[in-house]
Structures are given as structure tokens and as C-alpha cells.
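User: For a reading group we're discussing how well predicted structures match intuition. Take Threonylcarbamoyladenosine tRNA methylthiotransferase MtaB. Before you show the prediction, I'll give you the sequence so everyone sees exactly what went in.
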Amino acid sequence: MKGRIRFNVSTLGCRTNLAEADRMTKELEMLGLEHVTLEGNPHLCIINTCTVTQQSDRKSRHLIRQAISHTKGGEVIVTGCYADRQAELLRSIPGVTSLYRNQDKEKIVVDIRRELERWEGSL
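Assistant: Thanks. Here is the predicted 3D structure of Threonylcarbamoyladenosine tRNA methylthiotransferase MtaB, as C-alpha cells, for the group to look at:
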């Protein structure tokens, strides 16, 4: 492998989302991945969205667009309440590679662990 896989977990919304993002970050670091900001051009970005207000919907869409831009063809995973409410819209956005509903968030790190070998080979 030429370098460690860089990842970013960005979150909007409630304390639950923040706690989930912190947990995912720690688990991914334990797998040997390097946590970076979006500006660090991650290979993988997880966006934990919110949809309490129209403003949070806009912020979620903006953060997703930023992630797609910064990952440069990498993995962009969207989860959270906005993913529950707007699943079809999110599936239609070029660059969103995976969508996890709230009840499936626990599967994100498990699925990433499965994909690591493939991703490492493409660095």
C-alpha cells in the first residue's frame, strides 16, 4: 500500500449524530485509517445528516457536494435522517456511492472493513 487510507466523518445535527460520528471515527482509526478534514482529500467520507429544518436539509446537501468534490472519485457514504427522508434523491446524486438508513448505521464500519483490501489495492 502506498499510504494509509484517509477518511473523514462529517456530521450535522443532534448529539446522537455527534456521538455516532465519534464512534465511527474511533473504529476507523483502530482499523489503521487516517482521519483528515475534507480539505485533506479523504479517500472515504461519511456524511451523517440531519433534516430537522429546511436549513439543515440545505446544509446536508451542501456537505454532500463538498465531500464529493474533495474525495475526487472516492467513497461518499451518506447516512442519517436526511438519508431516511430523501433516499431516492440521494441515490440519484452522482458521487454518492453508498446510502445507509438510520437503522443501518452500525453496518457502515463493518462494510468498510470488508472493502479495505480492495481500496488499499487501488491507492
